[in-house]
């Protein structure tokens, strides 16, 4: 009886020892598995943080040069949302599997929104590129039309100038003769009482015929115009003084005529100039000298 009891106790102790050893090794294995699980969850959390950071950078890159205010505001809102979720993810424990899973779903949602915005941005970019090309084409066409119009205007101006020159009268055979008080030619400075201006208007079949008015400006050596009463005529958008004027009838053929200046002043010695005007044009300019 005693031996049986002893064997029973020994068996029980052996079983307890076996159970204790099994529990020790099983608990150790469980801790190892738990440690591996925590490490895996930490790794997944770090990966999720990296994905959030990459997405935030993508939002920043697309929004930086976007010229659409409405779309830029939406991108900024989503970028802020990503930043908020990233901050929450950083303070969430890796063992909080439920919240980590929710944040992973949030990432997928935001990424889908990002894809939609990218499509809109690409469409907007293509539209802008097309409009830019069209704008460049329109500008080129406008420039070509403007250049052609400018060229035609220049040609018109040149043609008008050619026609005006062709119709403009021209003086030749100019001569100035100083006269004394008996209207005789004199070479003595002190005897000069009158200046006689002889000139010839050349033949011009293209010029308008009829009654015309010729103006003569006698310009002294000091550059002043010799004038009696300060009379003026219109020339190149200005009213300028003249010395003598005369009406004549022009029939298109060569004609000669004469103008006289009565000397009431002390004549300067030196080189004078005689400028003839008709029909708003300078039709002859000739120097002449008066000396003692």
Residue share in β-strands? 15-25%
Task: Please report the total strand number as a whole number.
Answer: 10
Helix content: 40-55%
Q: Judging from the principal axes of the Cα atoms, what is the shape? A: rod-shaped
N-to-C SSE series?
A: HHHEEEEEEEEEE
Average pLDDT number: 81
Could you describe the largest sheet, including whether it forms a barrel?
5 strands, antiparallel
Radius of gyration: 55 Å
Helix/strand/pairing category: alpha+beta
* Number of structural units classed as domains: 2
What's the gist of this structure?
The chain has 292 residues and is α+β, with helices and mostly antiparallel strands. Helices cover 54% and strands 24% of the residues. Helix 1 runs antiparallel to helix 2, helix 1 runs parallel beside helix 3 and helix 2 packs antiparallel against helix 3.
Can you characterise this structure?
This protein is an alpha+beta fold and 292 residues long. It has two domains: 2-127; 171-290, Immunoglobulins (Immunoglobulin-like). It contains three helices and ten strands. The chain has helices at residues 2-64, 69-91, 97-167; strands at residues 171-179, 194-201, 210-219, 225-226, 232-235, 238-241, 244-250, 255-262, 270-278, 281-290. Strands 3, 4, 7, 9 and 10 form a five-stranded antiparallel sheet that branches. A three-stranded antiparallel sheet has the order 1-2-8, with no helix packed on it. A hairpin with a 2-residue loop joins β9 (270-278) and β10 (281-290). α1 runs parallel beside α3.
